[in-house]
Write a structure and sequence with these properties.
single chain, 26% strand, alpha/beta, globular
Length: 205
C-alpha cells in the first residue's frame, strides 16, 4: 500500500528508497496510478509493479500507467473509491467482508457474490491488506503516534491499520509527550517504522 491522493500525502522519499532497494513483482494499492514521472509513476516506469489496485488510474499526467496498461505490461483492479477506502478500513478493523450497493449491475461486480437486502441489491466485497504500507505524516514521536497535515492525511490512517508493517515518512520527530493526544490520528500501535525526512525535500502536501 502507498498512501496519497494524487501527489498529496504521497511518501515520495519512501518510494525512492523502495526503488533503490530493488523489490519487484509488486502489487500496489493506491488511489491513483501515478502522476508525471516521479513517486509512484517512477515505480511503475521502472517495471517493478505487476498489478495496481486503484480507483482513479487515468488522468492528464498518467502517461506511464497508460503506456504499460495498453501494452499489457501491468494488471489493473479497478475499485470504486468508496469501496477502496472501505475495503482497506475493513482489513484494519478485522471485518471479514461487507456488502455494498456500489458496483452492482456493472462489470465491476462480475464474478462476485450478490445478495438482495431489504429490496436492494448488494455486492460482497473483501478487505484489502498488504505486507507493507508506505505513508506520509507531518509529525511523530518515537512510539509512532502520527499527526497529519491537512489533505496529506487521506488514505494514510486506514492503510497503517490494514498493513502488517506500516512505515511512516514524517517531517518532524518529537519527544515522548510532545504530541497532544487529542491530535493523534494514527496511534503508534499501527506503526512499525518512522523515517524523518527534511521538509525541503518533501513531496507536495
Amino acid at each position: 500500500m502507498i498512501g496519497g491522493f494524487g501527489t498529496a500525502g504521497q511518501p515520495m522519499e519512501l518510494i525512492d528508497a523502495l526503488l533503490d532497494q530493488g523489490a519487484k513483482d509488486l502489487v500496489i494499492i493506491n488511489n491513483n496510478a501515478g502522476n508525471g514521472e516521479t513517486g509512484l509513476a517512477a515505480l511503475l516506469g521502472a517495471g517493478r509493479v505487476r498489478k495496481i489496485v486503484c480507483s482513479f488510474p487515468r488522468q492528464v499526467d498518467s502517461q506511464i500507467f497508460d503506456g504499460l496498461y495498453r501494452s499489457g505490461k501491468i494488471e489493473l483492479e479497478l475499485v470504486p473509491q468508496g469501496n477502496l477506502a472501505e475495503r482497506i478500513r475493513a482489513a484494519g478493523a478485522g471485518i471479514g467482508a461487507f456488502y455494498t450497493p456500489t458496483g452492482y449491475g456493472t462489470p465491476l461486480a462480475d464474478g462476485k457474490e450478490t445478495r438482495e437486502i431489504n429490496g436492494r441489491q448488494y455486492v460482497l466485497e473483501y478487505p484489502l491488506t498488504a505486507d507493507y504500507a508506505l505513508i506520509k505524516a507531518e509529525r511523530a514521536d518515537r512510539w509512532g503516534n502520527l499527526v497529519y497535515r491537512k489533505t496529506a492525511r487521506n488514505f494514510g490512517p486506514i492503510m497503517a491499520s490494514a498493513a502488517r508493517v506500516a512505515v511512516a515518512q514524517v517531517r518532524e520527530i518529537v519527544e515522548l509527550g510532545g504530541i497532544d493526544p487529542e491530535t493523534v490520528v494514527t496511534p503508534g500501535i499501527f506503526v512499525k517504522r518512522v523515517v524523518q525526512i527534511d521538509a525541503a525535500h518533501g513531496a507536495k502536501e
